[in-house]
Amino acid sequence: YKISMTQMEVLGVLGRGQYGVVHKVFHKPTKVTMALKEIRLELNQRALQQIIMELDVLHKARSPYIVDFYGAFFSESCVYYSMEYMDFGSLDRLYPAGIPEAVLAKITFAVVRGLQFLKDELNIIHRDVKPTNILVNKKGEVKLCDFGVSGELNKSLAKTHVGCQSYMAPERIVGPGSGPSGYTIQSDVWSLGLTIIEVAIGRFPYDNSGFANVFDQLNAIVHGDAPTLPADRYSDMACDFVAQCLNKDSKTRPTYQQLLDHEWMKHAESDDVDMQDWAERAHALFLARTSKSS
Ligand code: ATP
Ligand code: MG
Question: Is the Cβ atom of 35 under 6 angstroms away from ligand 1?
Fold first, then answer.
């Protein structure tokens, strides 16, 4: 089945990233509302074709912790990627409301299971774990998106990357593993740790304002102490879990199975948390904030 632009009715804009816009669209043939991500790349036809082909493995990626993939195509110099529409958007929109520890634990559990699925079933490393790539729907389900399935796409994104907030692990910045080719599973575990703290405290854990430039920030990641969860607001279990993810020595960082065996995740798994209720409240607060500011 070939998906194309002419089948889409554009309903609105869901957000903007470094590489393009994500639209909410209605896919007329199937009557499914989807999110359509645009990635602007200055690439030749062959490279674009290669990316579309590599994205195809996503048709096999079915997990409750991974956003469903519907298809990809290219048009002019953009790759378009259609995926499951997640009503409440990404975590960065929902965390300013403050997140109770039980909810944080459930979110973390979903992300770890998602990352483990990508590694075990598809043999892929996410490469971009951060709050904007963790999506929530109105049922309160938490799913990962924007993972590095296509080698060709990873290559061209790495060339154009200009982030000012870095979720990069220390070993990605200096040492033998640095550079786009040195990505490992352990680097995703670091980004997971930073993401958990950001969601908990409501801002990026490294204080950007104190840095004169992006090199200062990279320096702090490599030479400074790793950030921690505030011990006065989170349990010892939660703090220990995050500290293990943010071990500066990548070789002794835990595997996904070890993370799932951690007591914080064991609790999260059996805990009965009303995620739908939390998601509805957090989203209502997001809407109230954005209508006030516009
Ligand atoms: P960056 O470009 O640095 O990776 P980003 O992840 O925010 O940042 P995009 O991936 O282009 O950039 O996404 C832009 C925004 O669109 C996201 O922040 C998210 O809020 C929203 N979004 C993305 N995918 C979906 C989806 N499937 N359903 C609903 N909203 C989405
Ligand atoms: Mg994204």
Answer: yes
As a whole-number percent, the residues of the chain with pLDDT over 70 amount to 93
* d(CA 93, ligand 2 centre) in Å: 13
Tell me the three-class secondary structure of the chain, residue by residue: CCCCHHHEEEEEEEEECCCCEEEEEEECCCCEEEEEEEEECCCCHHHHHHHHHHHHHHHHCCCCCECCEEEEEEECCEEEEEEECCCCCEHHHHHHHCCCHHHHHHHHHHHHHHHHHHHHHHCCCCCCCCHHHEEECCCCCEEECCCCCCHHHHHHHHHHCCCCCCCCCHHHHCCCCCCHHHCCHHHHHHHHHHHHHHHHHCCCCCCHHHCCCHHHHHHHHHHCCCCCCCCCCCCHHHHHHHHHHCCCCHHHCCCHHHHHHCHHHHHHHHCCCCHHHHHHHHHHHHHHHHHHHC
d(CA 107, CA 91): 10
The tokens for 175 are 């040492």
Q: Binding-site residues for ATP, please?
A: 37
Tell me the CA end-to-end span of the chain in Å, nearest whole number.
41
Whether ligand 1 lies within 6 angstroms of the CB of 30 is answered as no
Question: What gap in Å lies between CA 224 and CA 230, rounded to an integer?
Answer: 17
Query: What would the pLDDT profile of 122-158 be if each residue is shown by its tens digit?
Result: 999 999 999 999 999 999 999 999 998 888 888 888 7
φ/ψ of 45, rounded to 5, equals -55, -40
Bind-site residues: 37
- Other CB atoms within 10 A of residue 39 CB: 23
- Please indicate whether residue 188 is annotated as part of the active site: no
pLDDT for 172-211, tens place per residue?
A: 887 766 665 567 889 999 999 999 999 999 999 987 666 6
Residue 211: phi and psi, rounded to 5, are: -100, 135
